[in-house]
């Protein structure tokens, strides 16, 4: 408001100065016409010319007055803008003084709804209100919590937030949480925030707490953030639907790999404790766990995890949803960090690159693996005998698990389907698939053919299938080649 009043005073002063100048010009024209009548007669005709000159000056003054009036109205209309610059509220953009109260006040003003329009479930529509950080660095002694009343169609962007040395360690720099803001108990609302965008922000958690918390929210965009020095989570999503985390860099420590302190990395880059979320084009460069998923139906694509190496006890992506995975991971780069899935049910991993003995680990909780596809990936290891897909525990229920069409160098290929051949002279041929098949002592389907040499036509039969070995026998000694195809799925 003060800025708008200052602009109006400047416009009024300019208008008065211009009016005085035009009036002086008009009076000067009158004196010039009387004092130099002979010469002026060639230009204007006496008093008539003087009047025309004054009329011209008056019209110009009115035109300028109208122009400045329009500018003044434009300046006045800015007071109704829905863009809130935090520096107008006294926030220190140098990061020296605490800006928590100032930015919180700006957010409170932005949440004053401009109309009665609502979004899903009655969430107030804020009309596209923006909190503009003006490229500053702001010190926070407490979290920026969106009001518990809820709201949608809102944005925070373009600046940096840094936690103070006494920032609470159990909070986040930005919180979309009605409960954390002192509310969240309305029986009429399942969701409190919708279409909230956090964009072009750097969040420095100062090793105290986390970066962003999204709770019971719909269609939130976390876009182009750099989140570092968190002690808990870079981004935590709890409940709600359709939070999109994209084009973002997350790391507890600032490193480009090979950090001497990697063994001591803690925290989680992204925690998804909700459904229908998407993580795409994200780099997680330091944390104990890159992405922890505890909710179903989530999509992960284009992620590069080189946080804490699996050899040091870390995990790139950990799917801790036994029996209800419902997650697809594509086009990602697991850099010395593995994917771990507990009792995977409906899991898809494809078109990804695994480096440094990174692999996929299926971890048994209740011994169930169903509807799993691990296909079309590339694995590169260090010749230490690591399997591209590893079983941690025994699986008793295995249905529709397909591990196929992967390629590996320096690691052991594992698959749920394989083909081999055995040749020689005799009456028994044993083909051992145990070095290749994923599940031990499990062959559900066998197909074989026997090609005999020397014109022989022996009788032959499949005699035994056990221990992932196939035994074919003939009724007489013969020189032959036996080709065998096996599958650990029955259909």
Automatic annotation (TrEMBL):
Q: Which controlled-vocabulary keywords does the entry list?
A: Signal
Task: List GO molecular-function terms, semicolon-separated.
Answer: polygalacturonase activity
Q: Which residues form the signal peptide?
A: 1-31
The answer on whether this UniProt entry bears the keyword Signal reads yes
- Name of the protein in its database record: Pectate lyase superfamily protein domain-containing protein
| Gene source species | Leersia perrieri
